[in-house]
Amino acid sequence: MNRAAIYAGTFDPITLGHLDVIERAARVFPRLILAVAERTTKVPLFSLDERVAIARESVAGFPKVEVEPFDGLLVAYARAKKVGVLVRGLRAFSDFEIEFQMALTNRKLAPDIETLFLMPNEDYSYVSSSTVRQIAELGGDVRPFVPEPSRKALERKLGLARPGFAAG
Ligand code: COA
C-alpha cells in the first residue's frame, strides 16, 4: 500500500463542499485520487466523461490531486491502486448512518482498507450536488455553491443563459 488516499463519489457535479474536503485531504496525504464513480444509484445529469472533465478542471490548482473514473467495487479499485485509505466527508449528522453503513461494508469486504472521515467547513455542510442541480434547473445562482467549471457545465447542459448564470 502506498501513502495516497482515495476520495470517491459521483461528483454530479463537483461542489465547493467537495473541494473543501479535497483541500483538507491534500494537506494530510501526499497524493489524493479523486475517483469518479461510473455506476451510481442515482441517474446522473452529467455523463461519466463530463463529471471527470469538470472535476479535473476544478482541481487544476491542486498538484497532489488526480482525477480518475472507476467502476465496480470501491475497495477493489483501491486495492488495484495499492491505496489503503478512503476519505469521506461527514457533513452533518444526517450523513452518519449511510457513511457508517458504507464504511463497515467496505471494512468487511477489505479489512486492510481504512475509511477516514473529514469534516468540511460548516459553510458547506448543507451543500449537495442535487440541490445545486435543482437551483440551476430553476434558474437560481449556483455560484455560492460550485466552482466555475461546474457552473459553466451546468449552463451548457441546461442550455441556459439566465441571470444566475451570468459570468463573472
Ligand atoms: N460537499 C458537498 N456535497 C457532498 C459532500 C461534500 N463534502 N459530501 C457528499 N456530498 C453530497 C454529494 O453531492 C451527493 O449529493 P446528491 O445525492 O445530492 O447528488 C451526496 O452527498 C452523496 O454523494 P457522494 O459522497 O458522492 O456519494 P455517492 O453516494 O454519490 O457515491 C460512492 C458513493 C460512489 C463512493 C459509493 O456508492 C461507492 O463506493 N460505490 C462503488 C460500489 C461499491 O463499492 N459499493 C459498496 C460500498 S458500500
Features:
168 residues, alpha/beta, Rossmann fold, five-stranded parallel β-sheet, 6 helices, 16% strand, globular, binds coenzyme A
Describe this structure in words.
By secondary structure, the protein is an alpha/beta fold. It is 40% helix and 16% strand. The protein has one domain: HUPs (Rossmann fold, 3-Layer(aba) Sandwich). The protein is built from six helices and five strands; from the N terminus they run βαβαβαβαβαα. A five-stranded parallel β-sheet has the order 3-2-1-4-5. Helix 2 packs antiparallel against helix 6. The protein is globular, with a radius of gyration of 16 Å. The mean pLDDT is 92. The site of coenzyme A (COA) has 23 residues, from strand 1, helix 1, helix 4 and helix 5.
